[in-house]
Amino acid sequence: MSLKKTIRQTLYKGIALTWLAWFASALLIGCSNTTISHQNGNAVTQENMAKPTVAIEKTYEIEPKALAELIQQGKPLHIIDVREPEEVQEQPFVGAENIPLDTLPQYLKELDPQEEIVFVCHSGRRSALAAKYLIQEGFKNVKTLKGGMNAWLKEGEPFLTVTP
Length: 164
Description:
The chain starts with a helix and ends with a helix. Helix 3 packs across helix 6 (148-161). The strands form two sheets. Strands 3-7-6-4-5 form a five-stranded parallel beta sheet. A two-stranded antiparallel sheet has the order 1-2. The chain has two domains: 1-32; 37-161, Rhodanese-like domain (Oxidized Rhodanese, domain 1). The protein is elongated and about 80 Å long. The protein is built from six helices and seven strands, in the order αββαβαβαββαβα. The longest helix has 30 residues, at 2-31. 46% of the residues lie in helices and 13% in strands. By secondary structure, it is α/β, with parallel strands linked by helices.
């Protein structure tokens, strides 16, 4: 009897600990939204990414090959990489300025609203947040690299290295 009781108690403890771990991780994930805000109160978070106050339409995305063509043509672009410095060191986007997403509001006054700005990140999610933020702040010429560095390394950068 005592062996069965010990097994049952161990099983219940395992279930309770599993449930507690699941609950804690769900709580942490739910509370870990990246937020950037500005003095005027506009904020861009991962939450309102799903319910945008300013829509990011497909027209604001630029395909990797199209960006490579613009770079090859010498079109004046301000490419901003919103990844963390450690990520940029591992896989730099040559010619991009590194402004991590959470520091973007600090650099707002240094950015020219008339300049064409292209945001880059790892997969495209953070750059979409950055683009939405600038659009909310009144910028008009803002784009985000579709698919981020993942797509760039497959489709954009190889296009630049090919010689006709």
